Amino acid sequence: MLATNTVHQTMRGEGYYDQVMDTHLVSVMAGVCHWTKSSDIAFSTTLGSCVSVCAYDTHAGIGGMNHFILPMAPENEDNRISRSFRYGSAAIESLLNALYSHGAAKNGLHIKLFGGGKVLNKVSDNVGQRNIDFARRYFQRENIRIESEDVGGDKGRRIIFFPQTGKVLMRSLGDKKELQNIATQEKKLLNTLSAERGKDDIELF
Question: Which residue in 80, 30, 8, 45 sits closest to 168, CA to CA?
Fold first, then answer.
């Protein structure tokens, strides 16, 4: 399911409690942005060609994560759809604005970037790279350094992000069945976008 255009403040007690990590894990689905100031919350997501930005300010004790499908809405797109967090253009800007408005400082912001794998060969051979390129250009334009990244390649990724500290746990997903499952889910999301736009095919530009 694709989400609404609200950056969700994740509160203590949301998600499910993981005994091993002693924290509540909250899933960040495609088209969603989450932020929190809670010390016992971590965000998790699974990425193929999609990209997630993990942003945090340790001094302000705040962090957030998004998960976007495509870099930008096509020109002349319906405004309601183009503002959706399924597009990097809305997902990144809205996440950063939410963090700034709740205490984060631009000069104290740390950015980590993940995803953009080549897992949709039969739909598009470059959507993952385009997501990566868009995110890199965005932060370059905003004069914000990307602290670290694990992007591209032919793999998927499972990410767990601890917004209070910036710590990230990542597991590479390269098994054929795992990649097929990721590709199937992402194709469904792209088909949903296409249907909402009233198109019969998937246009990635």
Answer: 45
Tokens of 123: 């739909």
Q: pTM value?
A: 0.86
d(CA 56, CA 39): 12
Residue with tokens 């930005």: 53
Nearest residue to 114 via CA among 164, 47, 62, 183 = 47
Per-residue model confidence (pLDDT) at position 194: 66
CA dihedral 34, 36, 39, 41 (to 10 degrees): -20
Q: What count of other Cβ atoms lies within 10 Å of the Cβ of residue 194?
A: 15
112-157 tens-digit pLDDT: 999 999 987 655 558 999 999 999 999 999 999 999 999 999 999 9
Buried b / exposed e across 135-144, counting CB within 10 Å, b at 16+? beebbeeeeb
